[in-house]
Amino acid sequence: MQMQRLVYGPFRSAAGRGPIGSLADHPFLIVLDGLDECEDKDEVEALIDSMLAFFDENPFIPLRVFITSRVEQHIQSRLNVPGVRLDNLVDHCSDDDISAFLDVLFQDARRRNPVIQAYVQEHGEWPTPSEKRRLVEHIGGSFIFASAVFKFIMVSDASIDYPTTPIDRLPLTLKMNPGLDGLYAQVLSRSENIPHFLDIISTIALLEAPLPTSGIAELLGISTHEVVNVLVNLQAIIQVPGTDDIPVTICHTSLRDFLTTQNRSGRFFAHPRHHVRLYLRLLECELQLRRRRPGVPIHQSECTPAVAYSRRFYIKHSYRGIELSEPPEWDLAIRLGRDALKLHPGSPELVQALADAFHSRAARTESLADFEEAISLYHKALLLRPSPHEDRWMSLNSLGSALVDRDRRTGTTAGLEEAIPLYREAVELLPSPHPDRSTPLTNLGCALLKRHQRTENMDDLEEAISLVREALEHRSSSHPDRPWSLNQLGSSLMGRYQRMGTMADLEEAISLHREALQLGPNPHPDRLWSLHKLGDSLLERYRRIGTMADLEEAISLYREALELRLSRTDHPYFTQQSCQCTRGSLSAYGNHG
């Protein structure tokens, strides 16, 4: 909206008042720097899309946009279109530029650091021209890498097994891989033997919003000084504030991608199972606070950092870890939920949280009694959230999903018919562009697809495709639920293909399932589903046109799916289909209590 008001609108107005072609040789220029540093990838994509739409509609307006940024996937996918020129700035950066940049940094360090001053007095210039030349050559023209290397050299290190002065650390930078993955691994290794290292790093990587050191400590049940002890050696890649009330942030968003991708991070991998621990700890933190104030409403301003975070995001961690959890963990979640509700009876948030715990356990154990208890609690939460309560949509959506899950368990259809109007009301309560709209959209689409499969009503199928397609538009390539929406739309299109035989539907379904598989490397909870869906659609194309490559790929996908299923035998209660609707009911509560 700001770009429309401040840039696009005035240019359109000027063009409407008369020719401005005389400015074509000297167009106005907007420079956008650090786009990759924006945490909200959806907003970045929307910004780029609006720019491209503006230039498509107004090709002769004398305006250019120059974006300087690491071209991350969510940016590159939007810019890889005609009318956009992509260039690598490293190709235009000379070693002289990097050398001048380092000169400024090292000169400032020499003025501030007494260790460097003492070394220079005794040994002369530091770094020497030879050291600086080798460092510049190793950096290879990347200012990002140059900045990270300098931070690595200058940050103090308390580890007795690691060089503790900048002079000793400088030679080590020449062994670093110029790619950021190598740098991340090198820096992280400095703290990996300190107690709680992996828990702290995994927490920072998996949090939905940053917490201060005191909040991280509270969440993990450790002392603040233990968090600081781990992070103080990692300031080349993690920004650690000087006080414990300012959030800890990562220096670059690619660090989170590194930590959450197993084949890149290796021993530093933030495993999705850590979501389960975070979920349980958030419930415990909430209960501890409520025990101090039994029966008294607790205002948001009175919450500790972890409890304030819990009220917004606990359900996100429940959802992210549901398929990797164990039944005893849900037993604990239910006990915690009951204890909290006893202290504050009638709290819709606590009723909802307890219902979520029963629903999640039911999805893992297939317990009909748990389904019934979850449905009863969701009904109660719904009554406590009359329209226009801002969280009413949550209870509508969750109740609908529990009813659909119970139908699958019992083989009946009454719950599906009851769920559809609940989902419709939830969608109506979240007009576009509400960030949570995609959840009831997807669930309504899935419910209509299920009804179509039973009744063969084409109107239900067409509406399902439209709804899930809209939901997918709300979930960018970086959205953790995009693979699920991709598979749902692919399944809907396969349903239409099976009725109509339109080849375009089959081709699009294959493309959607393939993207879902690419976005969900193991141990992503949707990978098993993606393997089966892509295999099914390729097998269908083989039957249609007889391409052997499709058959071979389908066999390979089914083989991987079988191996993945066998690898989960340590989770005897794992049922993929059981978890799908439950995940839908839990997937978008991020900004609510």
From TrEMBL:
TPR repeat positions: 355-388
Origin: domain of life: Eukaryota
Keyword annotations from UniProtKB, A to Z: Repeat, TPR repeat
Residues of the signal peptide: none
Residue ranges annotated for the Nephrocystin 3-like N-terminal domain, each copy included: 25-70
Pfam families registered for this protein in UniProt: NPHP3_N (PF24883), TPR_10 (PF13374)
InterPro entries recorded: NPHP3-like_N, TPR-like_helical_dom_sf, TPR_rpt
Keyword Repeat: yes
This protein's name: Nephrocystin 3-like N-terminal domain-containing protein
